[in-house]
Design brief:
The chain is mainly beta and about 325 residues long. The protein has 2 helices and 23 strands. Strand 2 and strand 3 form a beta hairpin.
């Protein structure tokens, strides 16, 4: 239990298990900052179906040069691999579970057969440790989506079981294009005394580290572009606990899509901050108006620190856009 976490004699044992730290003994691999998350996974084609193999496991994952979390990963990375498909594709995703507990995967926002939807105990038996499940559906929608665990969600998603699902529209003219395309997957972590607990919005369970695509600033990416170019940022609320007001410096962006749905041109609007809640997606297009270093960051100050400490101007949920003239 994290020190200070609210617990009394009535706290059920199952709840305490869900709040417990990842046991270091379960770690099957350890990765440094040279290994990225959100790596695009190419499918193999079987009878016209795009087939992806996903495998869950417990890993040690670097979020900063000197900070590693114990995470629940998919294909050895946090976030899990990016699945990039086209509207109309038939896809099959074979999920094998190498976690010490059962799991499932939910395809957030998609219209699909009920038994492919993923909620444990509701639409399918949980996938036991060592077991597997075959998800198969036709992607009828397009836009920015994601997938995540739907078994012990409070624990497993908070420990890293999620990934981006990007679906290109069948008709290329339906794509809202920009010169650069950058996905931002948000996450909150709780590290205490070398152990990683699932962060939760409750006393004692509050996060002390925050990551974008599995890294905390200053270890997040730098986006490089030129004056006049446009940048499409796809914010994904892959996190569990907070609504993150995501802000971009250097002038407003246009909000062009929400939850995978393009906003009609007449209804698009300018803003400089969007509140990205758990599960939500916002696609925004920002233009580099002036040269220099412009920030993308969460506007909750604590979420731009690493264990309450600022380094190189911040921490956590920050990305630099480096604009050259
Ligand atoms: Cu935040």
């Amino acid at each position: 239990m994290p020190p200070g976490m609210i617990m009394d004699r009535d706290t059920p044992a199952a709840a305490m298990l869900d709040m417990a730290a990842v046991h270091p003994r379960e770690i099957s691999a350890s990765y440094g900052l040279e290994v990225r998350g959100d790596r695009r996974l190419e499918p193999r084609i079987e009878g016209g179906v795009k087939v992806f193999d996903l495998e869950t496991s417990v890993i040690r994952w670097a979020i900063l040069p000197d900070v590693r979390v114990d995470a629940y990963a998919i294909n050895g990375q946090v976030p899990g691999p990016r699945l990039h498909i086209r509207q109309g594709d038939r896809v099959r995703i074979n999920v094998t579970n190498r976690l010490p507990e059962s799991t499932t995967i939910h395809w957030h926002g998609l219209i699909l057969p009920n038994e492919m939807d993923g909620p444990a105990e509701i639409t399918q038996e949980p996938i036991p440790p060592g077991g597997s499940y075959r998800y198969e559906f036709t992607a009828g929608q397009s836009g920015t989506y994601f997938y995540h665990s739907h078994d012990h969600v409070d624990r497993q998603q908070a420990l890293g079981l999620y990934g981006a699902l990007i679906i290109d529209p069948a008709a290329p003219q339906d794509e809202i294009t920009a010169d650069h395309d950058y996905v931002i997957q948000l996450q909150e972590w709780l590290m205490r005394e070398g152990l990683t607990f699932p962060a939760m919005p409750m006393d004692g369970g509050q996060p002390n580290y925050f990551t974008i695509n599995g890294r905390a600033y200053p270890s997040t990416d730098t986006i490089r572009m030129k004056v006049g170019e446009t940048l499409k940022v796809r914010f994904i609320g892959t996190n569990n606990g907070f609504i993150h007001p995501m802000h971009i410096h250097g002038g407003p962006f246009e909000v062009v899509a929400r939850d995978g749905e393009n906003i009609p041109e007449s209804a698009r609007f300018l803003a400089d901050t969007v509140n990205v809640g758990p599960g939500q997606r916002y696609d925004v297009v920002w233009q580099a108006r002036r040269p220099g270093k412009w920030l993308i960051h969460c506007h909750i100050g604590h979420h731009t620190t690493n264990n309450n400490v600022e380094e190189k101007g911040g921490g956590g949920l920050m990305v630099v856009i480096d604009v050259q003239s």
